[in-house]
């Protein structure tokens, strides 16, 4: 039964957010007939809306069966703003399921058995036994296996930047999609949802996946799938500015910028589709994501709305 729940398609964050807003409004006891019809129209407008509503009703009933202090405080406290905010956050976390909050907060559990790991927003530099330098980005975990025949780094999650030392043993990085064999140099490996992205800045490397082998030269990047390797493209050094504590954007779409920024903070960070395509440039210090968000309205015609510090959405700037 739990397996079936895990396999259900996730509900998009914006649809989940709207479903939660409807539920809280309907439970307030101050809903006009016009608003009630608007809620019914929203449900009927899209099958995804109805699916979200059916799920949120189930989630709401489930929360009422909890006896944790947070649940009791949110469900039983007076109907003020704090109560509504706590209830919204709990419902959003539960409704999105394996997404923004619950999955990100479970990543440290995945890293418990790793040789080296970082938490959300943390970066770490290691000097390996052969003299190689290994940088771990936010929420990353690796196992390190060096023996007489090879040097192997197994990636469990996240992203690394590796500067390999000279050594007669092959230096290999194993990922869920394939294998990277470095012949010296500096390279970046990042695990994506269903692929691995490899960027090579100096040296040379071979990529192996699905029976294919792809040589990678300095200044190139390529993505590995389970059964294919994409053609190489140019690699951008700005992509690893995180190793210097920076997020560098050059005419980056706002939704892509926020997706990158969200890797360094807990909770959900998204934007309204109306502003998703706005372009942003600049260098931003990753150790203060709140500061970055506070500066967005100065750079773009947007407003940053915070349901709580863990659920933030960027909207178009209102006039007047």
TrEMBL record:
<dbReference type="InterPro" id="IPR032623">
    <property type="entry name" value="FecR_N"/>
</dbReference>
<feature type="domain" description="FecR N-terminal">
    <location>
        <begin position="17"/>
        <end position="58"/>
    </location>
</feature>
<dbReference type="InterPro" id="IPR012373">
    <property type="entry name" value="Ferrdict_sens_TM"/>
</dbReference>
<feature type="domain" description="FecR protein">
    <location>
        <begin position="116"/>
        <end position="205"/>
    </location>
</feature>
<dbReference type="Pfam" id="PF04773">
    <property type="entry name" value="FecR"/>
</dbReference>
<dbReference type="Pfam" id="PF16220">
    <property type="entry name" value="DUF4880"/>
</dbReference>
<dbReference type="InterPro" id="IPR006860">
    <property type="entry name" value="FecR"/>
</dbReference>
<dbReference type="GO" id="GO:0016989">
    <property type="term" value="F:sigma factor antagonist activity"/>
</dbReference>
<protein>
    <submittedName>
        <fullName>Iron siderophore sensor protein</fullName>
    </submittedName>
</protein>
């Amino acid at each position: 039964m739990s397996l079936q729940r895990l396999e259900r398609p996730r509900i998009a964050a914006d649809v989940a957010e709207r479903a939660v807003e409807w539920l809280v409004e309907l439970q307030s006891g101050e809903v006009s007939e016009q608003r009630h019809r608007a809620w019914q129209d929203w449900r009927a407008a899209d099958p995804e809306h109805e699916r979200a509503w059916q799920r949120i009703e189930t989630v709401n009933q489930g929360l009422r069966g909890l006896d944790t202090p947070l649940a009791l405080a949110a469900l039983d406290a007076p109907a003020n703003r704090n109560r509504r905010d706590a209830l919204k956050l709990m419902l959003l976390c539960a409704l999105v399921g394996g997404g923004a909050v619950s999955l990100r907060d479970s990543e440290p559990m995945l890293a418990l058995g790793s040789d080296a790991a970082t938490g959300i927003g943390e970066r770490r530099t290691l000097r390996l036994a052969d003299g190689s330098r290994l940088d771990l980005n936010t929420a990353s975990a690796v196992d390190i296996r060096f023996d007489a025949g090879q040097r192997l780094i197994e990636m469990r999650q996240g992203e690394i930047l590796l500067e390999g030392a000279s050594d007669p043993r092959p230096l290999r990085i194993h990922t869920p999609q394939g294998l990277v064999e470095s012949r010296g140099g500096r390279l970046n490996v990042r695990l994506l949802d269903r692929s691995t992205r490899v960027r090579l800045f100096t040296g040379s490397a071979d990529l192996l996946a699905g029976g294919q082998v792809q040589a990678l030269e300095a200044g190139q990047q390529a993505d590995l799938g389970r059964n294919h390797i994409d053609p190489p493209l140019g690699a951008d050094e700005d992509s690893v500015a995180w190793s210097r504590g920076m997020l560098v954007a050059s005419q980056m779409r706002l939704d892509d910028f926020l997706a990158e920024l969200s890797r360094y903070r807990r909770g959900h960070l998204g934007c309204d589709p109306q502003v998703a395509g706005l372009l942003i440039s600049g260098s931003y210090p990753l150790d203060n994501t709140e500061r970055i968000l506070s500066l967005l309205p100065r750079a773009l015609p947007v407003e940053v709305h915070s349901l709580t510090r863990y659920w933030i959405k960027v909207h178009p700037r209102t006039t007047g």
